[in-house]
Amino acid sequence: MKPFSKALVSAIALATAVTAAPLKADPKAEVLHYWTSGGEAKAVKALQEAFAARGGEWVDAPVAGGGGDAQAAVLRARVLAGDPPAAVQIKGPNIQEWAEAGALADLSNVAASQNWDAVLPDAIQNIVKYEGNYVAVPVNVHRVDWIWANPEVLAKVGASVPTTWDEFNATADKLLAAGIIPLAHGGQPWQDATVFETVVLGIGGVDFYRKALVELDMDALGSDTMVKVFDQMRKMRGYVDPDFPGRDWNLATAMVMRGEAAMQIMGDWAKGEFAAAGKMPGKDYICASTPSENGYLLNSDSFAMFNVKGDDLIAGQNLLAELILGTEFQETFNLFKGSIPARTDVSRGAFDDCAIKSMDDMVSAADGGTLLGSMAHEIAQAGAVRGAFIDIATAHFNSDMSSQEAVEKLVKAIKLAQ
Ligand code: BGC
């Protein structure tokens, strides 16, 4: 993990030099997030409304750009300027980095009063705690390794959702021959990396994913198995339409909805789009995990409260933290977002079959040691290492680079980035 620059650390020290006074003010919070698609906007509006219902003044600071890379640049600039937003959607090792730099408020009081330790699974606690204390509040669990399929389109070639990568290729070839786009995809680096990591998991298996993408084992990164992963990525490139470069992920989801493409590989924020359009799982669309041996690629959104001055802002941060992990809000928000609650004790009654599958699979993956952090979505890796994976996945996907060359470049890039 790369440490923050001296300039950033001193900006943080200046911003936090004043200690908080007793809190009497009306709660207020500027909230920096990147939830701007249809389903995402509905989910974030639910938080805004819950905050307003308790007297909170919400200052919305959305930064468009799936996966959050654009937002990360805005956050750094704001912190450097000594003016961090009160609440920021960040996750994974980024939380640890900001906590280490002294930028985050300690949420121990809210956590103790709501007994977060008792309701959050270990995998989530590990992400949002720094040196044993809560420094972020988790909103949800998003699974990344999903296929979203249009059953009517698959039926045109007599196919159902593929359960192995060979089947995936055979079905995609049939669709191509029938003049149908097999894979709806948006050519943005983080989306290429999303497909790449599901292929690493599927072709390499759980242990290989862990060695290569989590532990950065050079033998795994430079192996024949990784060559096979890039071979499969080359096939995937042949299954997307020519207009894919730069397309937003939600527009790719819409292609599946409209029957213009058969499948999309994307995390379950895609389900938020289907839901926002009134589509029903099992009828209008099918969700299935991408082929793997019981793997589960975990992504979890959370909000960290940055050290800010002002009783109103601190009251706002405390209120937000309390609301976000409330049982009722966890249900409302995650129904819109396509994710499942971060809390384990929320009633399952209102959730659809895709969500129930995610809940069950997450528990069995945690028990069986097959629960893995997503690289593309900043749980397994962040910063320069994630950047290096994404760069190579994208460079390979968008050129005629051989699999062998991609593997060599990957090994070099990861060595340099560490
Ligand atoms: C986030 C989701 C978001 C998606 C698209 C993911 O990394 O975890 O909350 O909906 O990116 O922007």
UniProtKB/TrEMBL annotation:
<comment type="similarity">
    <text>Belongs to the bacterial solute-binding protein 1 family.</text>
</comment>
<feature type="signal peptide">
    <location>
        <begin position="1"/>
        <end position="20"/>
    </location>
</feature>
<comment type="function">
    <text>Part of a binding-protein-dependent transport system for a sugar.</text>
</comment>
<dbReference type="Pfam" id="PF01547">
    <property type="entry name" value="SBP_bac_1"/>
</dbReference>
<keyword id="KW-0732">Signal</keyword>
<dbReference type="InterPro" id="IPR006059">
    <property type="entry name" value="SBP"/>
</dbReference>
<keyword id="KW-0813">Transport</keyword>
<protein>
    <recommendedName>
        <fullName>Probable sugar-binding periplasmic protein</fullName>
    </recommendedName>
</protein>
<dbReference type="InterPro" id="IPR050490">
    <property type="entry name" value="Bact_solute-bd_prot1"/>
</dbReference>
